[in-house]
Amino acid sequence: MKILVNEARACVCKSPCVGIVPAVHVLILGGDGYLGWPTALRFSARGHDVAIVDNFARRYWHLQQSTDSLTPIASLEERISAWEEHSGRRIKAYIGSVDEGDFLDRVVAEVLPDVVIHYAEQPSAPFSMKSREHAVLTQRTNVIGTLNLMFAIREHVPDCHIVKLGTMGEYGTPNIDIEEGYIEIHHKGRSDVLPYPKLPGSLYHLSKVHDSHNLHFACRVWGLRATDLNQGVVYGIETDETSLDPRLVTRFDYDEVFGTALNRFCVQALVGHPITVYGEGGQTRGFLNIRDTLQCVEIAATHPAAAGEFRVFNQFTEQFSVLELAHLVQRCAQEVGLDATVRHYPNPRVEAEQHYYHAVNEKLLELGLEPHYLGDELIFSMLNVIRKYGDRVSLGQVEPKTRWRPGELGDEPEVPAPAETNGSGTRSGPDDDILGEEGVPGAAV
Ligand code: USQ
Predict the structure, then answer these.
(1) At CA 392, angle to CA 386 and CA 394, rounded to 5?
(2) Nearest C-alpha to atom 18 of ligand 1 is from which residue?
(3) Using a 6 Å cutoff on CB, does residue 123 contact ligand 1?
(4) What does the pLDDT read at residue 413?
(5) Is 167 a catalytic residue?
(6) Of ligand 1's atoms, which has the minimum distance to the CA of residue 202?
(7) Is the dihedral of CA 137, 138, 140, 145 positive or negative?
(8) Above 60 in pLDDT, residue 334?
(9) Which atom of ligand 1 lies nearest, measured to the CA of 263?
(10) Catalytic: 92?
(11) Does residue 152 surpass a pLDDT of 90?
């Protein structure tokens, strides 16, 4: 197989190079998404031949639920043209769905990729928990898409390295340290290294577990090579390439379905909506900056798994509890004059709110990952970017609605009046409610 090496050639990006080689074909599935688009730009900036696949499902799901990205995103056509203007490089796009096996097969046969980066999945836990239809769509898209990819690779480019975006949520929150994919088990006098036990917290996270098992099988039985990147919660808006031109910006979701914790908290603080901590807020997860997602994917691609190897990296840089993040955002927002409050909402999910959490994340660091750690500066800069688009915030998209245990008939009872903290960590009750006249907290800026 062609290995990506450390010889930068005609690299047009500002980021430190971890490797590049001419004529490496990179296929990015889900190349129009929050992470897929910046990844496509990064690999193109490094000088690789980049092709992407997307069916605009993420855009469509937002239309369906009347939500939108905070950042106004250009059409894929405009994005590709804008990138060509800046870099002189053309990204090739294939429009279609990965759950259509014949389509994906044709794309793989034409592109003949050296590495495939697979983001083309329904990525939201709440989305997967809304209804039977949402759960089926999630698992069909994710599981069948990955199966189709395995077969297409086996058929056309068996030496190609599959880099698959998995999730830290596959592991759940066990009361022991979380290892990177495998654990040595001693049992009745014998021992073995086996896949780490999985206890995912949503039907979305479960779909990623199924993907992992299927890919592991393909590596063991067909000799494919794959890296499963068990990624934590990503935050951030900009990368070196997306900040070059407004037409290159990536999407940034803050709604209760597709928005994730820290991104949502920053938008909430900016528009004066209470920061929505679910339950006690002791839920601890691994987090990483979007810039580090790009680094990690690049590192995985430049250090391919061996033939027959199913490799697992835990892809996050730091652990935080939800409440720690809420207080960090609140403090930074207050420093720039925003009146940010933190509220504890009844948890719409079924998850431990206080628990042990220690996950190992050594492998990417050993391969050279240089983390962008979370600090006040990053929050200030996110607030600044969000401020530019503040008038696009729709407050109706913020409140949590999707519950893991909905009512008998699928009705969605209103979320009871939540308690609120004032920054000192003490809670005030519903009497201190800051709901406006129409029951909508704060106001869009
Ligand atoms: N949470 C709040 N308030 C909010 C939103 C979330 O307290 O307004 C809490 C949730 O209850 C949960 C934690 O924050 O305990 C993380 O929730 P999230 O929505 O930020 O992230 P999650 O649903 O876990 O999923 C996200 C991405 C998913 C990725 C996963 C990585 O949507 O694609 O796989 O992060 S991980 O969390 O490590 O599994």
Answers:
(1) 105
(2) 260
(3) yes
(4) 41
(5) yes
(6) 23
(7) positive
(8) yes
(9) 20
(10) no
(11) yes
- Structural domain spans, the chain: 22-241+287-315
Q: Is residue 22 over pLDDT 80?
A: no
Q: What is the pTM of this model?
A: 0.90
Q: Do β-strands 161-167 and 49-54 pair in parallel, antiparallel, or remain unpaired?
A: unpaired
Give percent of the chain above pLDDT 70: 86
Single out the catalytic residue among 141, 167, 242, 284. 167
Q: What pLDDT is recorded for position 14?
A: 62
Q: Which atom, in ligand 1's list, is nearest to the CA of 278? A: 7
What pLDDT is recorded for position 11? 54
Residue 437, classified by CB atoms within 10 Å of its CB into exposed (0-12), middle (13-18) or buried (19+), is exposed
Please say whether the beta carbons of 20 and 9 come within 8 A: yes
Q: Which one of 289, 322, 325 would you pick to mutate in the ligand 1 pocket, going by the greatest count of ligand atoms within 8 A of its CB?
A: 322
Q: What is the pLDDT of residues 247-287, one digit of tens each?
A: 999 999 999 999 999 999 999 999 999 999 999 999 999 99
Reduced to 3 states (helix: H, G, I; strand: E, B; else coil), residue 212 is helix
pLDDT value at residue 431: 29
For 22-241+287-315, CATH number? 3.40.50.720
Looking at residue 411, what is its pLDDT? 47
Q: Which atom of ligand 1 is nearest to the CA of 259?
A: 19
| Atom 33 of ligand 1: nearest residue by CA position | 123
193 touches 184 (CB < 8 A):
yes
Cα 408 to ligand 1 centroid, rounded to whole Å: 25
User: Separation of 336 CA from ligand 1 center, angstroms?
Assistant: 26
**Packed helices 376-388 and 261-271: angle between N→C axes, nearest 10 degrees:** 60
Question: Does 1 have pLDDT greater than 80?
Answer: no
Q: How far apart are the first and last CA of the chain?
A: 53
Mean pLDDT (whole number) for 299-325:
98
Determine the Cα–Cα distance for residues 417 and 317; give it in Å rounded to an integer. 35
1 within 8 A of 306, measured Cβ to Cβ: no
Report the alpha-carbon distance of residue 177 to residue 436 in Å, rounded.
45
- Tell me which of 199, 233, 293, 319 to substitute to probe ligand 1's pocket, judged by most ligand atoms within 8 Å of the beta carbon: 233
Alpha-carbon span 439 to 395, nearest angstrom = 11
Exactly one of 34, 39, 67, 208 is catalytic; which is it? 208
Stretch (H or E) spanning 254: none
208 in active site:
yes
